[in-house]
Amino acid sequence: MTFAQQSFTVMDWSSSGSLHDYLLQKAHRQYDERRTRFNKATISTQSVITYGKAARSACLRLLGQMPVGGALNPVITGIVKQEGYSIEKVVYESFPQHHVTANVYRPERKGVYPAIVFLCGHEDPAKFTPSYQQTASLLAKNGFVVLVIDPLGQGERLQVTTAEQSRHERPGKKEHTLLNETSNLFGTSTPAYQVWDNKRGLDYLITRPDVDSARIGCIGNSGGGMQAIYFAAFEKRIKAIAVCSYLSSRERMYDIDGPTDGCVELPNEGVALMEMSDYLAAAAPTPLLILAGRFDSIDFIGTLSACNELKQLYTAIGSPERFKLFAYDDGHGLSLPKREAAASWFKKWLYHDSTFRRETPIPILSPEQLQATSTGQVSTTYPNEISVAQKNQALFEETAPHRKQFLQQPRTSIVKGIQALLRLQTVHTPVHVEYKPAYTQQGITYNKAILRREGQLPLPVLIVQPTVQPVGTLIWLHDGGKRKIADSTSLLQQYASQGYITLICDISGTGELEDPASLNETRYYNKEYRNATIALHIGSSLVAQRVTDMINLLDFATADSTMQSLPVTMHATGLLTLPALHTLVLDNRIKQLYLYNGLSSYKDILQKPTALNWYSYVITGVLNYYDIPDLITLAPPGTIHMNN
Predict the structure, then answer these.
(1) At what angle do helices 300-316 and 18-41 cross, to 10 degrees?
(2) pLDDT at site 459
(3) 1: pLDDT strictly greater than 50
(4) Dihedral pair phi/psi, residue 502, rounded to 5°
(5) What is the pTM of this model?
């Protein structure tokens, strides 16, 4: 940090992690409330059933809007014969012109068999992954038809990243996250699209003459384990479940590693008082096997905590034998002991057979031998393929009538609707000002203050007084931090000579409150990914958090005896422009607003999903209500000045 930067520092503690701590503390309070609710659920069989129903309803709300399905149009594009089983190469349509690639492993002998929906983890090859071939063949040899589905963004189903890029980058987690941020704008999600793909896969399975539709199981590993967790709550046709290398405690995972990729992050999960185990509680008493490595990267202490809760529920409902934890001294993934434990579990509950056939070595086939499309990618095999990115672009047009209807309401109703969407709360407690020693540079005195408000994030502010009679309050909010403006002495001297009291503030996530870049993975394309995700998780957003900051700043200014009667002008750059625009619409104390280099429409995010830092603008479901140009029309004429 340079001397000038130190000179503009206001906080007297290392504050770069303060926003993260603030959001995480809110999350912990939600989890505390959830624990209280859970403890009441274990009292009786009926309380468990009630809790499970509530969890399922919450799951459906959190997943959000699902696509509208059409004909499956399943095609078997090839068959590979193996010893004791065969592998069919299958393509079906999850929704019209959106193709899902899969392999079906089936026993060699003709007959009607129970089936397993196999959900892959984050491996780039997806269904081609060796351990998945080994698991599926083991299950087929034990008398199961196994559908192994390529997830979005993996295997033959790249949605955003090109095939050429996939050779150099791992697309799965990246694509899941890029698709999640655009989906969140409509109140849906990557998990919702994946659940839908898996549901349609199950729909396909039960059309097969070799499948007993009354005996369907589901297994998922790693990210596929989280898919299986969601699927357990969503799909009532599943009669036995195995989750490998993912069940843990979301609360602990946030503490230890922070949020992960978009296929396992659902906005509003925290405010809905949902933990990972609650999705599985929705499926109780369906037989449930948890497969875990004691040295897994997925926190094993969290796994034990989740399993303890599930054991309590299964015991209270009178079916303790239907729940089992199989833990092995290894790490992440479907190792041989876990594969055999899964085979034994499904044999027990779908065949009522306590025996199973152990694994023997199989030839591992190449992607070229197993691919279901002619080119290896749905995007190049099917000329009219509609990717999830394209589907979300179409949703923008489909939701236009909803936005029009929202904006036809009286202005007071619109404002209340925006406040409800942002989950803003009216605060009546005063803003307390803690002044720090001032700093003078080139004839300008920077008065330093920390704005504190009960239950709110403290904000660092620099205050520059005018050299003439005050005529107005000018608030400067730069997404690069207050020093970007504080260093502009000629600009500040101009404001002072014009009679402006200038407030230069670091809003959440900027300047002294900026989250360390090292804690935000670059593959997620966002420099504040963890805070954006946690904010959405607790039912808020970075936009809402920053609107709250700006209102607190306005409350400070209008309560101060020297500023309370002065008109307020606000300047905001980049990531702070959208919160500033919301603040103007919601709060009539801003008389002039200058915006620089901000997002002009959410349509830009949909059309350019790989651009940086889009998650900072995401408000869950916003495009069901309004777009950014709509906000501008709600402002008084002549108050907004845009400089892009």
Answers:
(1) 20
(2) 99
(3) no
(4) -100, 125
(5) 0.96
